[in-house]
């Protein structure tokens, strides 16, 4: 099977022909139908996240059909359509796992980072961490739900009941979260790269009541802000835009350094927090909610062999919505 493989961080992915993995007792072997391209893949490929498995097949927004399964993988039948998210395995015994916070597990494994992921024709995944894919979404449309959607949803939950919600960085996650937020009766204020009129138009189309550049001040005080752009300088900018008691949620796994800022920006019980990974419960909640909104994903498909081009476009900010790789 073809797998786009990272040999060393900072180098392009290489197309390699290798045998499909053999599923372990708890694993399903999926024939990959679509795999979304996430900003985290860029952080892995560029070497901004430490100690990836090497060589590595990236990709953690995988939609596939079950081709084979291990003896204990009873949750799915051969032929079922299944999604594989970022959270690939947890220990089940650490204090985080035992308190409903498996996203913070001390010994986790992550798809497309410490486990091989979906930039391939086949992937093996632990069935306990996979999700059934809701009907009504094509394979490509469903792929971005599995990270942009899931972790975006967790970020939105962390924003509490904020009515006026700022979203910094209007990419794959934001385009999903904006729809959910609007459905919940919130007002979305979208912040894009300064001067990116196209992204601002896209945000308004998805229901944002205001869209501007990340250096602009919104017309009203925000109750909360979610940062999807990996730009540390946006943390003080967002703090300056939120009202007293407001929360700034950093939704990405990696961010450039946050510059020093005056304490008065944090004063007034403002909060800065990060969101790490996902729990299986987040996945179940979000995948049940998405068809009700209904969340529509804007996807741009490329052949699997074009993975490097997909990453280049994402790095260059040329993508509206989400990119999805299609094998075969
Ligand atoms: Zn654990
Ligand atoms: Zn992701």
List keywords for this structure.
single chain, 6-stranded parallel β-sheet, binds zinc ion
- Which descriptor suits the 3D outline? globular
In N-to-C order, the SSE pattern is: EEEHEEEEEEHHEHEHEEHEEHEHE
Structural class from helices and strands? Answer: alpha/beta
Sheet-strand content, in percent, reads: 25-35%
Mean of residue pLDDT values: 97
Tally of individual helices: 8
Q: Which spans have pLDDT < 50 for at least 5 consecutive residues? A: none
What hetero molecules are in the model? Answer: zinc ion
**What does the largest sheet look like?**
7 strands, mixed
* Gap between N and C termini: 10 Å
Level of helix content?
A: 10-25%
Radius of gyration: 19 Å
| Quantity of strands, as a count | 17
């Amino acid at each position: 099977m073809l797998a786009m493989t990272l040999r060393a961080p900072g180098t392009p992915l290489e197309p390699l022909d290798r045998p499909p993995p053999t599923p372990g007792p708890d694993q399903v072997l999926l024939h990959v139908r679509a795999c979304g391209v996430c900003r985290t893949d860029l952080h892995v490929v560029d070497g901004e996240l430490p100690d990836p498995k090497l060589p590595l097949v990236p990709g953690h927004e995988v939609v596939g059909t079950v081709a084979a399964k291990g003896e204990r993988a009873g949750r799915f039948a051969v032929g079922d359509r299944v999604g594989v998210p970022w959270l690939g395995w947890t220990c089940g015994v650490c204090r985080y796992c035992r308190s409903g916070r498996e996203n913070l597990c001390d010994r986790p494994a992550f798809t497309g980072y410490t486990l091989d992921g979906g930039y391939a024709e086949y992937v093996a995944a632990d069935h306990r961490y996979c999700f059934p894919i809701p009907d009504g979404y094509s394979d490509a449309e469903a792929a971005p739900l599995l990270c942009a959607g899931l972790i975006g949803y967790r970020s939105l939950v962390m924003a509490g009941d904020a009515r006026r919600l700022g979203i910094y960085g209007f990419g794959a996650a934001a385009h999903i979260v904006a729809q959910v937020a609007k459905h919940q009766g919130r007002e979305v204020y979208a912040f894009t790269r300064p001067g990116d009129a196209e992204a601002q138009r896209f945000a308004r189309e998805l229901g944002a009541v205001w869209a501007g550049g990340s250096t602009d001040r919104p017309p009203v005080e925000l109750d909360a802000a979610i940062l999807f752009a990996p730009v540390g300088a946006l943390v003080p900018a967002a703090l300056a835009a939120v009202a007293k008691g407001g929360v700034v949620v950093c939704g990405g796994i990696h961010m450039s350094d946050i510059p020093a800022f005056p304490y008065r920006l944090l004063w007034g019980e403002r909060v800065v927090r990060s969101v790490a990974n996902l729990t299986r419960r987040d996945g179940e909640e979000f995948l049940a909610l998405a068809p009700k909104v209904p969340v529509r994903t804007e996807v741009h498909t490329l052949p699997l062999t074009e993975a490097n081009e997909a990453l280049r476009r994402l790095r260059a900010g040329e993508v509206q919505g989400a990119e999805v790789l299609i094998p075969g």
